[in-house]
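input
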Amino acid sequence: MGDVKKNMEWVFLFIILAVVCLVGQRWLHAGEEGNVHEVPGTVISVENDEILRAGAGAVGVQAATVVIVDGKWKGMQVRAINHLNGQLDMDEIYVPGDRILLAVQEVEGEITDAKAINMYRQHWELALFAVFAAALVVYSRLIGVKALLSFLGALGVLWCYYIPNLLEGAAPLPLSLAVLVLLSMVIIFTVSGFTRQGVSAFLGTVCGLGVTLGLTLFFGARLHLGGMTTPFSTLLLVQGGYGLNMQHIFYSAVLLGASGAAMDIAMDVSVSMGEVKTKRPDIGVRELIASGFNVGRMVIGTMATTLLLAYSGGYLTMLMVFVSQGTSFTRIVNMKLVAAEIFRILIGSIGLVMVAPVTAVIAGVLLNASWEAWGVRQPAEK
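output
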């Protein structure tokens, strides 16, 4: 049995490494389609004569002289255009010394046109990720390495498989459920190994996703949420996504947001019960399940509030506008955007409440089942 567990762990690690390599290749070749390339550069001078300022916003065109700092054109100076549309959340005005990202057009090896895209933030983002990875590995050691690989693998599945299939018109809910079940399996078994705790956490997560999906379909139809409340949904339609089922894509986003917390709850409960069983091998099924229920109650008590704070943080400025305008509570909760966030928070919280007891029952049964009951000879004690 021990060899089977190790083999399964290596299989899942191999799958994750393959996915990480795939997404790495996709990212390395992103922005290099046709004769357009993306390169970093440093601004050495700007021309702001054609910029019209209106309050905090600005419209017009900024011209910048930029030195390319990487790639085959390293050291070359180009004149880049920065278009300003009056959108404070998207526009950026550059000053000399800024490191920016350029889109350059190449014809016969020469740059014929250049456009400023964004500030070049990639190096600091990588530094922040390195701090996260180091902290994770230093504290959790081998488990931290597995968690890091599962993190990258999940990112790869979402980027290289899930999103492209959504854009191609695949049914969002069946696709989302299949992807989340797959990700739950790979993430849980990679971190915990192919153990009874891992199986319990996986089954509890899947049951929680099923409940979340049912509640999403039932209450989503009655709240008349069409799916256009998610960021960039209008832009997605303008770019040709008229055939996409935006309502079910919104439902899928709710499932996706709830799945991570559900996995967390399931692992907390199952691992805690595994520790109890290790310290008290003679504990009975009912007593072990009761311990799991107690752990679940404590975790859920804070997790539900965590979801509220996380979603509220994303819409803090919207809440500030409501308070500053003295908007009534009745009007606020009936707004489509607010109703969508209330829906997201409560559906996710109910899913969490269901995951904990289901996982406790499954773990209580599996942890107390004898090896012979599974048709496997009990391994010799080391």
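quick obs: The chain has two domains: 37-120, 169-374.
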